[in-house]
């Protein structure tokens, strides 16, 4: 059974940290709220996957380390590796490390926006490799605070790693807990037919199970719809209103998403799938019969002649399900005159094999 939350004394520790004049570098961060964090832990059900004392946590941009401390106290990790480039946060994390002497926190003063920053993190990771296709890796967990100006771009790159099974995902289905802007989360969990439907939500739906876990109380219906709130039932985080806190905007516009990677083996050609989805979403509001030639000259004639996609002819890409896109990608993969880029990739892969 996991601890429900860190020691109450951490409340005073972080209250002091918030009261000081901190530089937040444009990041948003949850403030320490025991009740909310207990609700989040209940929702995450970490004990269904992880055994305390037998897990490594990789922490990307932990900032003040507030929710990092919650995970640390709950999971008692073998290693808690924090990648943080900002001097003010590094100072705060070193203070946290001293405050939690048995935390196994290791601080790497490096910028995780650069892929090379993860090379030291991978040391000994082979010991924790778990390629069980149907379950999460029970010994690796990634936590990140990407609620900052460049954060959305980095999240989208991480979802790309789910497709290619690289980066930390080469070690199995590594669960990711990511703080981001509500607007980013809404894009990722948008359903087929939604105005926010795009390729990123299709990728999230196809290669992961992504859930909204928490959102700050200042969210608006125009960003996180009532339907999404009803479906995901996120914890609503109260805002921090202490009179001595000089950065009130730093605790607003927050969302926590829980990403469970999925191994996908029903897509015949990932390169074709990637090409098809990218090209069709350029014309997301057009019916397939009007958008299909975006896949290459002759695509309309080929698909109409074969009749393989006849039932999708009037459907718009933004309204299509992941199964619809899988079918289209398979048809294009088998097209004798498919675009040269796909033929070249196929030939290259055969030479490599």
TrEMBL record:
Family of the protein in this entry: Belongs to the class I-like SAM-binding methyltransferase superfamily. rRNA adenine N(6)-methyltransferase family.
PANTHER family named in the record: DIMETHYLADENOSINE TRANSFERASE, DIMETHYLADENOSINE TRANSFERASE 1, MITOCHONDRIAL
Protein's cellular compartments: Mitochondrion
Functional description taken from the UniProt entry: Mitochondrial transcription factor that confers selective promoter recognition on the core subunit of the yeast mitochondrial RNA polymerase. Interacts with DNA in a non-specific manner.
Lineage top rank: taxon: Eukaryota
Protein name as annotated: rRNA adenine N(6)-methyltransferase
Its EC number(s): 2.1.1.-
Provenance organism: Pachysolen tannophilus NRRL Y-2460
Keywords: Methyltransferase, RNA-binding, rRNA processing, S-adenosyl-L-methionine, Transferase
């Amino acid at each position: 059974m996991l601890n429900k939350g860190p020691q109450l004394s951490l409340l005073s520790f972080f209250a002091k940290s918030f009261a000081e004049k901190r530089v937040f570098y444009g990041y948003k961060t949850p403030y320490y709220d025991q009740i909310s964090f207990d609700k989040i832990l209940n929702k995450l059900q970490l004990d269904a996957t992880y055994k305390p004392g037998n897990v490594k946590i990789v922490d990307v941009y932990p900032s003040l380390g507030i929710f990092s401390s919650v995970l640390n106290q709950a999971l008692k990790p073998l290693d808690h590796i924090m990648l943080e480039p900002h001097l003010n946060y590094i100072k705060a994390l070193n203070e946290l490390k001293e405050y939690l002497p048995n935390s196994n926190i290791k601080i790497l003063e490096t910028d995780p926006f650069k892929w090379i920053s993860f090379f030291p993190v991978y040391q000994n990771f082979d010991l924790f490799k778990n390629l069980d296709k149907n379950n999460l890796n029970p010994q690796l967990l990634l936590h990140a605070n990407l609620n900052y100006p460049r954060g959305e771009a980095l999240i989208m790159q991480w979802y790309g790693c789910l497709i290619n099974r690289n980066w930390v995902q080469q070690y199995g289905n590594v669960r990711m807990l990511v703080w981001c802007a509500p607007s980013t989360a809404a894009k990722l969990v948008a359903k087929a037919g939604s105005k926010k439907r795009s390729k990123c939500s299709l990728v999230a739906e196809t290669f992961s199970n992504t859930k909204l876990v928490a959102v700050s109380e200042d969210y608006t219906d125009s960003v996180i719809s009532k339907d999404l709130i009803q479906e995901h039932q996120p914890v609503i985080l109260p805002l921090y209103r202490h009179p001595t806190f000089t950065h009130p905007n730093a605790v607003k516009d927050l969302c926590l998403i829980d990403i469970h990677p999925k191994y996908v083996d029903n897509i015949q050609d990932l390169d074709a799938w990637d090409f098809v989805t990218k090209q069709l979403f350029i014309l997301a509001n057009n019916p397939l019969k009007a958008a299909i030639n975006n896949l290459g000259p002759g695509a309309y004639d080929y698909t109409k002649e074969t009749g393989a996609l006849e039932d999708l002819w009037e459907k718009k890409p933004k309204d299509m399900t992941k199964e619809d896109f899988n079918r289209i990608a398979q048809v294009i993969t088998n097209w004798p005159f498919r675009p040269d880029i796909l033929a070249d990739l196929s030939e290259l892969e055969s030479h490599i094999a």
